[in-house]
Amino acid sequence: MPRYAFLVEYDGGPFCGWQRQADGQVSVQGLLEAALARLDPALPVVAAAGRTDAGVHATGQVAHADLSRDWDPFRLQGALNHHLRPAPVAVLAVALVDAEFHARFSALERRYRFRLLCRRAPATHDRGRVWQVSHPLNAGAMRAGAAHLIGLHDFTTFRAAMCQAKSPVKSLDEIRITEVAVPMGTELRIDLRARSFLHNQVRSIVGTLERVGAGAWAPDDVGRALQARDRAACGPVCPPQGLYLTGVRYPQEPFPAAPAP
Description:
By secondary structure, the chain is of the alpha+beta class. The protein folds into 2 domains: 104 residues, Pseudouridine synthase I, catalytic domain, N-terminal subdomain (Alpha-Beta Plaits); 137 residues, Pseudouridine synthase I, catalytic domain, C-terminal subdomain (Alpha-Beta Plaits, 2-Layer Sandwich). 21% of the residues lie in helices and 30% in strands. Homodimer. One of its GO terms (molecular function) is RNA binding. It holds the Pfam family PseudoU_synth_1.
């Protein structure tokens, strides 16, 4: 059976998350499998690089499925997007891949972006797509706090209590914080890069860094929280709507490289 990889974009707002649910809640995986079922009687099962939570978006999710017959990737992309309408899910590209390719287990790196809007006036066009705070944030202090998290650490403090990962030890390769001017405010774009992440790790980190930017925490408090290896030492977990899975890297890339955002 030929295996196809899919580059997928979605607005996570209407969904219970990526993963199909037994109780019938609407998920991105469920919609994509339903679209494939319209094209393939074998009812293909889809696996993804990251099982994003409810409300989390994606601009670079990667998934794969085995189909019962050969498809031209361009035609398969068009057919899937036809059956996905009007849901806010789009297949950006399709590629025929080797049978050994696995969207989750072959991944070398995952990239996330968190968008944090600082301004008093409510978000309009980006409502549901950013986390908004009404106070200014000190990006320099946030960068100093984030520096404590780079490298190989026990991230027990920054993972959800229900996280199913076998180990809390992860290597965080980069946290980059960029300030972007927006009308009457500033958007902070927090980009994180690692081979894999723990459940709620990104949202826990961003919520903690927001406290640093607001002046409630000192940058060194982030290092002390990390060393505590205690969930109670974490700052607040920020809401999901500002979080995006922006890309996944593989030993052999199935899709052409996109311009950096």
